[in-house]
TrEMBL record:
UniProt keyword terms in alphabetical order: Amino-acid transport, ATP-binding, Nucleotide-binding, Transport
Pfam families, sorted: ABC_tran
InterPro entries in the record: AAA+_ATPase, ABC_transporter-like_ATP-bd, ABC_transporter-like_CS, BCAA_Transport_ATP-bd_LivF, P-loop_NTPase
PROSITE patterns, alphabetized: ABC_TRANSPORTER_1 (PS00211), ABC_TRANSPORTER_2 (PS50893)
Occurrences of domain ABC transporter (ranges): 8-234
Name this polypeptide is given: Amino acid/amide ABC transporter ATP-binding protein 2 (HAAT family)
GO biological process entries: L-amino acid transport
Single GO molecular function: ATP binding
Length: 234
């Protein structure tokens, strides 16, 4: 029997901006249905890795594969069609479009409908006709997640999706992410909330200066407190 390829493989990738290299020979994988947490202090390359995966920064070497197929040369929208949904740092929603329009703009044929998103985030149903720019930070974050889901992803990439939000909103978002995980969605998540990640992630990858400094499952992560101290400053 053939071994199933991981949904995402980052294979010895180097990348950066202009002449500056930020990611050095970096490898990681996300298997089907797995949640991988990407950790590291500020400026260690988490967002840059997300951009490399979604086609926002060019690789100088290495390869990224989705479902075993290289995404080299593909434009971001083509990568999205391969089943990758991005919830970017800073949300980046269209302030001039309504909630409904923001969601509809990224819709593809598939399992997720507007109603499905509204069931996940009832607040978005209430705000459906409000401009994205008039939403609270938490509502914008819900919209950013909803928008990514509307592309019907098999892998969701979340960059600081709970940052700067009120605790009650954070809890709602973690609950939704748990539901998505239970539904079998594969997730690569960057977040600062280690406590929430401990009960959510299957595996942890810690970046330091653009390299993988540590990786392991949740039990190993709990046991290896020195990792937390050295690389995360907690
Ligand atoms: N658009 C850009 N142009 C040039 N350099 C950049 C750009 N974006 C990020 N960098 C640099 O790349 C390095 C890694 O940044 P990155 O945003 O990937 O880190 P991060 O781990 O996501 O940090 P944070 O936790 O603060 O979000 C930093 O030195 C940063 O200054
Ligand atoms: Mg970042």
């Amino acid at each position: 029997m053939a071994i199933e390829a991981p949904i995402l493989e980052v294979d010895r990738v180097s990348a950066g901006y202009g002449r500056g290299t930020i990611l050095f020979d970096l490898s990681l994988a996300v298997r089907r249905g797995e949640v991988v947490a990407l950790l590291g202090r500020n400026g260690m390359g988490k967002t840059t890795l997300g951009r490399a995966i979604t086609g926002g920064v060019k690789l100088t070497s290495g390869e990224i594969r989705i479902d075993g197929r290289s995404i080299a040369g593909l434009k971001p929208y083509q990568i999205a069609r391969c089943g990758l949904g991005l919830v970017p740092e800073g949300r980046l929603i269209c302030g001039g479009l309504t909630v409904r329009e923001n969601l509809a703009a990224s819709a593809v044929r598939g399992a997720w409908t507007l109603e499905g998103i509204y069931d996940l985030f009832p607040r978005l149903r209430e705000r459906a006709d409000h401009a994205g720019g008039a939403l609270s930070g938490g509502e914008q974050q819900m919209l950013a997640i909803g928008r990514a889901l509307m592309t019907n992803p098999r892998l969701l990439l979340l960059d600081e999706a709970t940052e700067g939000l009120a605790p009650v909103i954070r809890q709602q978002i973690w609950a939704v992410l748990a539901r998505l995980k239970k539904g079998g969605l594969s997730i690569l998540i960057v977040d600062r909330n280690l406590r929430a990640l401990r009960s959510f992630a299957d595996r942890f990858v810690v970046l330091s200066k653009g390299r993988v400094a540590w990786e392991g499952d949740a039990a190993a992560f709990d046991a290896d407190t020195r990792t937390l101290e050295t690389y995360l400053g907690v």
